[in-house]
Amino acid sequence: MSLKERIDQELKEAMKSGDKIRLNAIRSIRAALLEKEVSIRVGGKGELNEEQELEVLMGLAKRRRDAIEQFTAGNRPDLVETEAAELKVLEEYLPQQLSDEEVEAAIREIIAQTGATSMKEMGKVMGLAMKTLKGKADGGKVQNLVKSLLSA
């Protein structure tokens, strides 16, 4: 079953169950996927591949995390709760996230492969790290780990 079919199926289930937060989250995923599909459409037909779908989902999750951060800073626990619940639904569609230890091990391996020794080579390490860990780890976390490992 493709992601689009899964989203449509779970949208129906959420409507039937009356779970408003899940329904809103799934609707936002569906809308974002349709928007991306329309943007790449050539000759009247456009299909997203798995990588493009993953990009859309990661973008939505990042927006939710940023909103949670800002609502926390603005002392709006009601909105934080809503965004966190929608983020949890979004994460069901993303690949399993790696643990901090697994991410650090992967970054250490990438540093060894590239031979990077200083912060000057951070771009080289980050490029390979983000390609390797795409969808499996948060970019901010990867960046912080790369910085700490290269500056140590």
From TrEMBL:
<dbReference type="InterPro" id="IPR023168">
    <property type="entry name" value="GatB_Yqey_C_2"/>
</dbReference>
<protein>
    <recommendedName>
        <fullName>GatB/Yqey family protein</fullName>
    </recommendedName>
</protein>
<dbReference type="InterPro" id="IPR003789">
    <property type="entry name" value="Asn/Gln_tRNA_amidoTrase-B-like"/>
</dbReference>
<dbReference type="InterPro" id="IPR042184">
    <property type="entry name" value="YqeY/Aim41_N"/>
</dbReference>
<dbReference type="InterPro" id="IPR019004">
    <property type="entry name" value="YqeY/Aim41"/>
</dbReference>
<dbReference type="GO" id="GO:0016884">
    <property type="term" value="F:carbon-nitrogen ligase activity, with glutamine as amido-N-donor"/>
</dbReference>
<dbReference type="Pfam" id="PF09424">
    <property type="entry name" value="YqeY"/>
</dbReference>
